[in-house]
Amino acid sequence: MPGWDYLSYAYHGDDGKLFCSKGYGNTYGPTYTTGDTVGCGINSVTREIFFTKNGKNLGVANKTVRTDQDLYPIVGIRSFGGLVRVNFGQQPFVYDVTDDLKKLPIQRQTALELNQWLFELNGYSNDNEDSLLDSDSSISHRFNKSDTSSEAEF
């Protein structure tokens, strides 16, 4: 189960709890269901992970994310035949991180912009969703450690 396994983090829709490498969760945010858009972001400078629901940041979920290793996205779903649409940046995210970047000191903004630039070299450009590079740098099954966000629509 996402969030129960070591070094995994999950925001569960059935109870709104946050799970961080343990079989029990802590109160975090509202529940979510069909029609909601849930996002996940990582600030690689502060090592913080956050989740969003329908474009609203729910706050810091964890402050000890391992940004020195590759990160792998996972979505858990309990309904048979359920459908999930995932956005790894090929379309604009519902949550706009721009305001958060403006709140950071300039050196942190530069580091985050550099991380975005590195990710664009590794897989895609926000300016052109058709600019995926060759299959050796595919982002369809894993995040590069410099990626910072993703969203899933339920």
UniProtKB/TrEMBL annotation:
Start and end residues of each B30.2/SPRY domain: 1-93
InterPro entries associated with the record: B30.2/SPRY, B30.2/SPRY_sf, ConA-like_dom_sf, SPRY_dom, Ubq-SigPath_Reg
Pfam families linked to this entry: SPRY
Membrane-crossing segments per the record: none
Family matches, as SUPFAM superfamilies: Concanavalin A-like lectins/glucanases (SSF49899)
Record protein name field: B30.2/SPRY domain-containing protein
Species annotation: Acrobeloides nanus
